[in-house]
C-alpha cells in the first residue's frame, strides 16, 4: 500500500458495454511515441496491423515530423477501434498491454508528489462521477496499492526540486484549500470559494511560480508568513467571518448567466457528442435560448429558490465534491499563480451550476413543487451525474475555457478577486 486514492476509486468498476457513454467518444485520443511503437509491435502480423496504420495518424498539432499520434474518429465521434458493442476491439484482441497509456489508465490520473503516488478519478467517466458526487465519504483518502494507477510508471511528477518554493509548499497550500472546502458547518459553497479566492490573494504577492521570496536569508521569514496565512484560513472562525461578508454583497445576476451560456454554447459546434449536444440544447431552451441574460438569471434564481428547502444540501455536496476532486486531480502548480487556478475552478463551478439548473429533470422538479423525498433526490442525483460528467468531458478540458478564463480574470490581484465575485453570484 504505497499510494493513496479517494475512497470512491476503491469502489470503481468499469461498466463496459452497459456504460451510458464510452471513455473516448467526442475526445481526441493522444498516443505518445513509445505507446505508438508498443501498439504497432503488439498488432504486428495480425489483421489489426493495417487498421493501426490507417487509424493512428501523426498528430499534426505537434508540427512537421511529429513523433506523437492521435487515433482517428468515426463520423459519430467514436474511436475508430470501438466495436459494435462499444467495446475496444484492440483491448479485446491484444489485451490491455497493447493500449496507449491514456486508454489503459482512463479514468484514473496518477501523480507523484515527491516519492508519494496519488491516484484520482476523472468525472468525465459517468461511473466515477456517480461514485464521487453521491456518496458522503467518497473523498476520504485511503491507502491503496500502486496497481490502482494501472500504469504507475506513467504518473506525472510534481515537485522533487528542494530549491523550488512553489512546488515545495504546494501540498500544504492544497491541504488548506481542501480544508476550507470540507470544513463542517453551514457555510455555503460560494463562501468557501470566496475564502479560497481570498487565500490566493493573500499569497499572491510572494508565493507564485518562479518566486524568489523564499531565497537565501529571506526563506525563514517567507515560510513563517506562508504558514501563518495557511493556519488562519484553516480556522473555522475565518470561514465564518468570510461567509458573513460574502452574504452581505449584492451583485447583478445577468452577467453571470451570460458568461455561463456563452461558455457552453461555444462548445456545441466543436463537440461531436450526441449526449452533450442534446443536453446543451435542452438547457439553453430552458433559459429561453440564453440570449437574454437577465431573463435567464430570473429563471435560474426562481428555480434555485424552489429547490433550496428540500435539496439544497444535496446540491452543495455535489459542488464541494467536484471542487475537492479537482484540487486532488489537477495540481494547481500547472498554472503560474494560485489565483488563476481558483478563478478557473470558479468558472467551471459556475458553468456547472447554470447547466444543472437548466437540466430538464431539475426544471420539472422545480415546476412540480420540490420536496426532499428519496425519489426527488434520486432524480436530482441522476441529472447531476449527467451534467457534471458531460461538462467535465466536453467543456472543462477545452483550451478555449482556459483562454476565456484568462480574459475574464483581468490583470490579476484584487481585480481578479472582484471579477470572481461575479462568477460566484449564482452559487
Ligand atoms: S466511461 Fe468509465 S464506466 Fe464508461 S466505459 Fe469508460 S471507464 Fe468504463
TrEMBL record:
Lineage runs: Bacteria, Pseudomonadati, Myxococcota, Myxococcia, Myxococcales
State the NCBIfam families in the record: Lys_methyl_FliB (NF038110)
Q: Which organism is it from?
A: Pyxidicoccus fallax
Give the domain of life: Bacteria
Q: Which keywords does this Swiss-Prot/TrEMBL entry list?
A: Cell projection, Cilium, Flagellum
Q: What is this protein called?
A: Flagellar protein FliB
Amino acid at each position: 500500500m504505497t499510494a493513496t486514492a479517494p475512497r470512491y476509486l476503491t469502489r470503481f468498476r468499469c461498466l463496459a458495454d452497459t456504460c451510458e457513454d464510452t471513455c473516448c467518444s467526442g475526445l481526441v485520443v493522444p498516443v505518445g511515441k513509445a505507446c505508438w511503437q508498443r501498439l504497432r509491435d503488439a498488432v504486428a502480423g495480425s489483421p489489426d496491423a493495417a487498421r493501426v496504420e490507417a487509424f493512428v495518424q501523426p498528430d499534426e498539432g505537434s508540427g512537421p515530423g511529429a513523433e506523437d499520434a492521435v487515433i482517428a474518429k468515426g463520423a459519430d465521434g467514436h474511436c475508430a477501434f470501438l466495436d459494435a458493442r462499444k467495446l475496444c476491439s484492440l483491448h479485446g484482441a491484444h489485451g490491455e498491454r497493447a493500449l496507449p497509456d491514456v486508454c489503459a489508465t482512463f479514468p484514473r490520473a496518477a501523480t507523484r508528489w515527491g516519492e508519494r503516488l496519488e491516484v484520482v478519478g476523472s468525472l468525465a467517466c459517468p461511473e466515477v462521477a456517480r461514485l464521487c458526487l453521491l456518496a458522503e465519504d467518497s473523498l476520504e483518502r485511503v491507502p491503496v496499492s500502486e496497481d490502482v494507477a494501472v500504469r504507475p510508471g506513467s504518473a506525472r511528477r510534481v515537485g522533487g526540486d528542494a530549491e523550488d518554493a512553489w512546488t515545495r509548499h504546494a501540498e500544504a497550500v492544497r491541504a488548506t484549500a481542501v480544508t476550507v472546502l470540507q470544513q463542517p458547518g453551514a457555510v455555503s459553497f460560494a463562501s468557501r470559494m470566496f475564502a479560497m479566492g481570498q487565500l490566493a490573494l493573500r499569497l499572491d504577492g510572494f508565493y507564485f511560480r518562479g518566486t524568489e521570496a523564499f531565497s537565501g536569508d529571506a526563506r525563514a521569514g517567507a515560510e513563517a508568513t506562508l504558514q501563518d496565512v495557511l493556519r488562519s484560513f484553516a480556522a473555522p472562525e475565518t470561514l465564518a467571518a468570510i461567509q458573513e461578508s460574502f452574504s452581505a454583497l449584492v451583485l447583478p445576476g445577468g452577467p453571470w448567466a451570460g458568461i455561463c451560456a456563452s461558455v457552453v454554447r461555444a462548445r456545441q459546434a466543436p463537440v461531436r457528442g450526441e449526449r452533450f449536444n442534446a443536453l446543451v440544447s435542452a438547457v439553453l431552451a430552458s433559459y429561453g435560448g440564453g440570449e437574454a441574460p437577465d431573463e435567464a438569471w430570473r429563471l435560474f434564481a426562481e428555480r434555485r429558490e424552489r429547490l433550496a428547502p428540500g435539496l439544497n444540501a444535496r446540491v452543495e455536496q455535489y459542488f464541494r465534491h467536484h471542487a475537492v476532486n479537482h484540487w486532488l486531480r489537477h495540481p494547481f502548480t500547472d498554472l503560474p499563480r494560485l489565483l488563476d487556478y481558483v478563478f478557473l475552478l470558479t468558472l467551471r463551478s459556475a458553468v456547472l451550476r447554470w447547466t444543472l439548473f437548466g437540466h430538464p429533470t431539475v426544471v420539472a422538479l422545480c415546476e412540480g413543487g420540490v420536496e426532499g423525498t428519496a425519489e426527488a433526490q434520486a432524480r436530482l442525483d441522476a441529472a447531476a451525474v449527467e451534467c457534471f460528467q458531460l461538462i467535465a468531458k466536453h467543456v472543462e478540458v477545452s483550451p478555449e475555457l482556459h483562454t476565456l478564463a484568462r480574459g475574464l480574470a483581468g490583470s490579476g490581484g484584487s481585480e481578479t478577486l472582484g471579477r470572481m465575485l461575479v462568477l460566484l453570484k449564482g452559487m
